[in-house]
Amino acid sequence: IAGNPVLFNENGDSPGRYEIYQYQIRNRTAEYKVIGNWTDQLHLNVRSMQWPGGVRQIPFSICSHPCQPGERKKIVKGIPCCWHCERCDGYQYQADTFTCKMCRFDLRPNENHTGCVPIPIVKLEWSSPWAVIPVLIAVLGIMATLFVVVTFIRYNDTPIVKASGRELSYVLLTGIFLCYATTFLMISTPDVGICSLRRIFLGLGMSISYAALLTKTNRIYRIFEQGSMSVSAPRFISPASQLVITFTLTSVQLLGVCIWFGVDPSKAIIDYEDQRTSNPALARGVLKCDISDLSLICLLGYSMLLMVTCTVYAIKTRGVPETFNEAKPIGFTMYTTCIIWLAFIPIFFGTSQSTEKVR
Asked: Where found in the cell (predicted)?
């Protein structure tokens, strides 16, 4: 009747004929408008179609957009052809389409997290204020120490220099010089040699200084203690004996360092944990000597023992006559030193790890 032939497909069904409508709003009036038809195949009038927002361009008909670099595909459960894009965050990088992996401990992800790059290595630079200020103080201290040494040498045979105990005074000045000179080792770029010298001289200067002061105060104490009981002079109060006692006390420090070298040889390491921040871009590796906080305190422990012992003798000799003027300045020095050490230890362990915390 319509003039169309009657046809059947292989299933015995007649082919379908459909008109395709789209719900559109024109001039605030909603209506269904024919935009195409189906007769054996699809015929669409794209120009007559409308999309939300008045857009004429056909929207993408896809389940998921391709993931950007540094993002992995996370398949939607039950819909294997659809996925969510999940960014590789922190220290992760995109290993493949579906996997994020952690970078090695000495690496960090690049800017788009598609691979790993080496973490920058930092150390205490000579131009840093944390280095410049200690170096200036050390230079001033060395100059003052050398000035005193030159003065002592020039007036070596005068009664004042003799009365001060020339031999122990020179030993004490040597210890003070080493304490100041160690500053340059602490700022130098760590390597096996520098780290070895740090172990030797970090505690040696203080050990020499405290050993000399301890020998002085012990000598004063024994003189007045013996004087209250007998008219005979105590033993080992000659300058040679005082030097032997001082060097014997100092040798204990050197022996401990030698044992330490045998048990754990010096080496420079790169510590990636001290400055491993949550933001990989700020992560840094710190080049430093392999000396732990506990090892450092143990290294200085013998000096602290000498200091405490010297303080005890300084307290015992606080009642010496005013004319015997060595004991009281030594006592005052040891009291203030104890206070400084009591403040140093909690501050040292309480500060965060950084390149400015010199090992």
From this structure: Cell membrane
